[in-house]
Amino acid sequence: MPSPLQILIVLFAVLAVLCTAGAVVAARRRRRLGASVAGLVALLALALAALSGAVSLGIRGYRALTHEELAATVRVVPTGPRAFTARFRFPDGRRATYELAGDQVYVDARILKWKYAANLIGMHTAYELDRVGGRYRALENERNGKRTLYSLGRERTVDLFELRRRLPFLSPLVDARYGSATFVPADRPATWEIRVSTTGLLARPVPGG
Question: Which member of 47, 164, 173, 174 has the lowest number of beta carbons within 10 Å of its beta carbon?
Fold first, then answer.
């Protein structure tokens, strides 16, 4: 079933076609004002269709968030002094393993907070895990220790965060600059659930993990 955003793209595209046809007819009848107005509306509709398409591409990979839900399960296993393995299992079945340095495993996410105007067309808060890394408890170790950081996000044609930064007029629709992070100990074998809620990331131990 098409999403509200996809329907909006189709409507803008249809409007652009109809206005273009109207502009052509008006031009043939030498109605310059009518042709100009129809042409401008067609260009506006085409621009809105393109923008809606860019937003649609930008939110691919993000998961709709209406309540607290599981973002990933992480199995942490120490492999040496301030070194450990983090094995991720995602809700869609994907798995990934990372060799990290530090005392804690750090995970952050990007949150898309759509505003009321966007909620009206079916756009709701969404999230995507962004990065995983090793974190040191001591500030001195953080400054001088080995740094390990990996991307958890997927490659995308349109980066909505970057699009929001470059196009300030999107501010009435979306706040794409909100981030959240959590970190947990990595000094002993343990399994953690990384959960995300409307207030940010949470980490909860799995009993017996």
Answer: 47
